[in-house]
């Protein structure tokens, strides 16, 4: 090329400014785009909200031909196409949400070279008709969005995605760009091999979001804590993720009763009502949404100031993605996770019935370890995504307030011997009542007031005992017998504790005052 033809990269830069209105590339957008312009395959791993779309949109625009974008999310496709059209880019989508006649028109336009970016669902991509359309077009790039769906190891496996191997076979000279926010190594390797792009360069952008503070609290009295939290920062917009549809509704109603501007959102709602909630939230007409994980996909709202998890997410990918909806404008934002052992049990039960049991359980266990961490949480989180943080972050609850440890051997012995003396037949509630010497009717009927440990733990509150027993479970001194109505059972390690053969180090429970202080936003 002569010196007065602009290099494709200079054009990429002017497209960034003129078409999208941005001054600078973010993260590794620049490197990814230049690799695509060189005709190379790539795997792009960027956190949600990092700006993956521009990585394929810009190469599509600065070259001849068109870019095909494979996406499993129909609603996202529509949003992206609309956003592109608003920026003056010719874009369209093909999926089951439009009529056959409309589809045909789009296909004709595409073959005539009138569309620069065409989004297709994997189902549509797999049809013979569409194969002919592809063959009759000039493709400058094939982008596979949400590429983790290809992997059995991922959390969103889509069987249709495993058929994408034909792309490289049929279009060997068209670069393929796989994009995802999921970075674990097994998933990464799976994407490369399933797409047959094992030579592709991997672009891994940092997952660190230093503007998000991280914190975890025990789940007891969480509604009260949430109300305090909101009342302390009434002007701020936030999302509260709940495990069940029902709890999004009950929580929203409890907040409304306190005069708080909150509503709920879940997949079981009438689509129109749902869209309305989402719209009000985006327009700042609604401050707080209590939602299931269905909320947030593709929501582009930059001033979400906080995200609370009312329940434990099922893995760290989900957690990261959900907290990532806060602070997209880069300003300081807060996240808070409420942790309870009963959530872990419930999530475990969901797994029981599904496939890939072991993998899902291992992921849940990592999530639990994060919740129970006694060292910098951000370090732990980033290391899960393959990134090492050299120093502690200073912006998580552990860094700000390292936990105090205490010797828990005596307490463990009280609890364990009560479990032994009740023949390992009782659950956490009854155990605590025995230890605290409760006058419960059924306790007396069973004669538990006569055992030696009845009442020995009465100097500790019910909530403190919940905290201790949670720790004994985590330490593996006790386990829950799912086949025995969730009764507590003593493990081999627990026996050693009973005989004082091991140390038992546990974190101190928080006092009411401490809890209040921690829940007050800085
Ligand atoms: P992802 O797909 O990675 O979740 P998107 O592609 O939807 O993220 O981008 C998230 C937001 O960031 C969008 O609003 C997008 O317009 C914006 N964005 C992307 N790249 C840049 C950039 N270089 N400068 C400023 N904003 C950007
Ligand atoms: Zn930290």
UniProtKB/TrEMBL annotation:
GO CC annotation terms, alphabetical: bacterial nucleoid; cytoplasm; replisome
Alphabetized UniProt keyword annotations: ATP-binding, DNA damage, DNA recombination, DNA repair, DNA-binding, Helicase, Hydrolase, Isomerase, Metal-binding, Nucleotide-binding, Zinc
One GO process term, biological-process aspect: SOS response
Cofactor(s) for this UniProt protein: Mg(2+); Zn(2+)
Recorded GO MF terms: 3'-5' DNA helicase activity; ATP binding; DNA binding; four-way junction helicase activity; hydrolase activity; metal ion binding
Residues covered by the Helicase C-terminal domain: 222-375
EC number: 5.6.2.4
Helicase ATP-binding domain span: 33-201
Domain of life: Bacteria
Catalytic activity: Couples ATP hydrolysis with the unwinding of duplex DNA by translocating in the 3'-5' direction
Stated family: Belongs to the helicase family. RecQ subfamily.
Protein name: DNA helicase RecQ
Source organism (scientific name): Reichenbachiella faecimaris
Residues of the full protein shown: 5 to 526 of 721
């Amino acid at each position: 090329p002569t010196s007065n033809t602009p290099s494709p990269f200079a054009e990429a830069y002017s497209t960034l400014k003129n078409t999208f209105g941005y001054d600078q590339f973010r993260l590794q957008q620049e490197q990814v785009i230049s690799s695509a312009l060189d005709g190379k395959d790539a795997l792009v791993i960027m956190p949600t909200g990092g700006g993956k779309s521009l990585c394929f949109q810009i190469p599509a625009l600065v070259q001849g031909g068109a870019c095909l974008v494979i996406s499993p999310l129909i609603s996202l496709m529509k949003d992206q196409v609309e956003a592109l059209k608003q920026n003056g880019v010719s874009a369209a989508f093909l999926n089951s949400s439009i009529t056959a006649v409309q589809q045909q028109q789009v296909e004709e336009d595409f073959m005539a070279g009138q569309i620069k970016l065409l989004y297709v669902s994997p189902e549509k991509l797999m049809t013979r008709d569409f194969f002919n359309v592809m063959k009759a077009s000039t493709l400058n790039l094939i982008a596979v969005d949400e590429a983790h769906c290809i992997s059995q190891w991922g959390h969103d496996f889509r069987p249709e995605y495993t058929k994408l191997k034909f792309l490289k076979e049929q279009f060997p000279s068209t670069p393929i760009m796989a994009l995802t926010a999921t970075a674990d190594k097994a998933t990464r390797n799976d994407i490369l091999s399933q797409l047959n792009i094992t030579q592709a360069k991997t672009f891994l952008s940092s997952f660190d979001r230093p503007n998000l503070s991280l914190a975890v609290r025990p789940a007891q009295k969480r509604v009260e804590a949430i109300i305090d939290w909101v009342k302390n920062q009434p002007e701020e917009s936030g999302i509260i993720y709940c495990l069940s549809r029902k709890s999004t509704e009950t929580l929203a109603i409890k907040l409304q009763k306190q005069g708080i501007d909150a509503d709920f959102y879940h997949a079981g709602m009438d689509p129109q009502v749902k869209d309305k909630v989402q719209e009000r939230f985006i327009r700042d007409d609604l401050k707080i949404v209590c939602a299931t994980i269905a909320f947030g996909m593709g929501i582009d709202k930059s001033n979400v100031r906080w995200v609370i998890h009312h329940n434990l997410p099922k893995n760290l990918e989900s957690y990261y993605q959900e907290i990532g909806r806060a602070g997209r404008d880069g300003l300081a934002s807060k996240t808070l996770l409420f942790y309870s052992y009963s959530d872990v049990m419930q999530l475990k039960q969901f797994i029981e019935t599904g496939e890939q049991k072991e993998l899902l359980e291992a992921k849940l266990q990592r999530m639990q370890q994060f919740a129970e961490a006694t060292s910098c949480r951000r370090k732990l989180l980033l290391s899960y995504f393959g990134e090492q943080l050299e120093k502690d972050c200073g912006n998580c609850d552990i860094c700000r307030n390292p936990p105090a440890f205490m010797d828990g051997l005596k307490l463990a012995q009280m609890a364990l011997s009560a479990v032994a003396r009740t023949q390992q037949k009782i659950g956490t509630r009854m155990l605590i009542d025995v230890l605290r010497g409760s006058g419960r009717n059924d306790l007396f009927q069973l004669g538990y007031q006569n055992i030696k440990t009845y009442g020995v733990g009465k100097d500790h509150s019910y909530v403190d005992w919940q905290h201790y027993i949670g720790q004994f479970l985590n330490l593996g001194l006790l386990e829950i017998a799912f086949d025995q109505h969730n009764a507590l059972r003593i493990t081999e390690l627990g026996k050693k504790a009973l005989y004082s053969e091991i140390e038992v180090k546990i974190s101190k429970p928080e006092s009411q005052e401490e809890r209040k202080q921690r829940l007050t936003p800085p």
